[in-house]
Amino acid sequence: MARRHKHEEHENHERWLVSYADFITLLFAFFVVMYAISQVNESKYRVLSNALVNAFKDNPKSETLLKTESGSGESGRINIKQQIVIKEDPAKQAQRKQQEQTMKSVATDLNKVMEPLVKDGKVRVTQSNRGIAVEINASILFDPAEAKLNPKSVDVLKAVGQVLATIPNQVQVEGYTDNIPISTPLYPSNWELSSARASSVIRVFRDEGVGGDRLVAIGHAENKSVASNDTPEGRARNRRVTIMILAEGEGAVKELSMDNAASASSALGVPTSVAQ
User: Fold this and answer.
1) pTM metric for this prediction
2) Got the DSSP string for 201-265?
3) Fold (CATH) for 91-275
4) Per-residue pLDDT reduced to its tens digit, 99-129
């Protein structure tokens, strides 16, 4: 018998079209998804952003309304509405305004009692959200390398202490020096000197009736300078004492650093002395 000849199968040279079609389909789906998620309703986004900002601010508006809608009732989809109303407690609002007015009054009183020094540029009184800062040039308070107050400066500090005794705010007294090293039996470094100077000021305030639990002495030494130490004028500017009357809600520094403030509490008996 004659054998049948098998027909050879021809190779399909077009089967790559299947993979190519799948790839094009996936690529199309990818770009459709990317386009869909890139569409942002700017008006709704702006309303949401403003509402969140007002919600987390210190002083939110008395009333903020946020509305969002998705879907359409006409097409049978679910119509979702959400309202967020943020209201500030009237009692807290009145208390905040009273605190602001009190701090302004204190700043005015401090400017009056230290008016001559303010005019001479020896004292600066500034106010911020943290409180009131009274920056006093150390040259009118102390002799060089000393922490004992000059007799003339005591009367000014007593007047400041009398103002502080009328308010309940926490008070931080911060001492600063220039970068010239000091090494004496009483003050081995600028840390001890700056802490002792801050403590000397606190001692006057305490004698004027300011509660010891409200007072904190801090020594910064030559750190946190406000001018260059390369010139005599800059070093004189850096030698200063800052009296910080903290706004209510601002806590005073309570951590103790015994290594950096050894001379302040033992020498003058102040309630707290901190060096940073």
Assistant:
1) 0.58
2) HHHHHHHTT--GGGEEEEE-TT-S-SS-TTSHHHHHHHSEEEEEEEPTTPPPP----TTT-HHHH
3) 60s Ribosomal Protein L30; Chain: A; (3.30.1330)
4) 888 888 888 888 888 888 888 888 999 988 8
